[in-house]
Amino acid sequence: MLIRTAGICVYQINIDGKVLRGTAEAGKRTSGLCLVSAWVPDQGLSLGQVKVDEKSHRGGNEKTAIPELLATLSLENAVVSIDAVAWMKVLLNLTA
Questions:
Q1: Residue 88 to residues 17, 63, 71: CA-CA distances in angstroms?
Q2: pTM here?
């Protein structure tokens, strides 16, 4: 959502991970290609994607790719939303 306050435009950026359909090997639930994406919902615009490391993906962990994706973005005047499962680990990594 674009928010205008005190002459400043603030954009919402959503971060989410998805396993791409049709990329998994038959019978293996965690073998598919997993990407973490940053997108602006109001504009329908994807800002970037990072592939989740296969070792991390086997454990269902997209948290390792999120800081890498955030580092590529200009986050000035942006509100970033990340699902609760990933947020705590990312916050700890960014503040350490």
A1: 15, 9, 17
A2: 0.72
Between 17 and 27, where is the model more confident? 17
Rounded to the nearest 10°, the torsion over CA 63, 69, 37, 39 is: 130
The beta-strand segments (E) located in the chain are 3-5, 8-19, 34-40, 45-51, 78-82
The structure tokens listed for 90 are 């990312």
CB 33 within 8 A of CB 20: yes
Contacts with 73 (C-beta within 8 Å, 6 or more apart), sequence order: 13, 38, 47, 48
Range 38-57 burial, b when 16+ CB lie within 10 A, else e: bbbeeeeeebbebebeeeeb
